[in-house]
Design a protein that fits this description.
Length: about 70
């Protein structure tokens, strides 16, 4: 059963992530959000980050070890 927030079921099945997300939100409300300088630095880092060349849905990756490959007919 998933936790309920404000009378609606959550969209995540990962309870640990949800608990952290709520804690971060409470902390941001209590202590204030990121400063403008921190936001600008995060945006700068995001612009300079390398993008993926291959999308995650591009298909199976080759396996490194022969013993991990599926056997023919299985």
């Amino acid at each position: 059963m998933r936790p309920v927030r404000r009378g609606e079921p959550t969209t995540t099945g990962n309870r640990t992530w949800l608990a952290r997300r709520i804690a971060w939100r409470i902390q941001a409300l209590a202590e204030g959000d990121l400063s403008e300088g921190a936001r600008a630095r995060a945006a700068e880092l995001a612009r300079d980050a390398d993008l993926r060349v291959i999308s995650p849905g591009a298909g199976p990756r080759p396996r490194a070890c022969a013993w991990l490959r599926p056997r023919p007919g299985s």
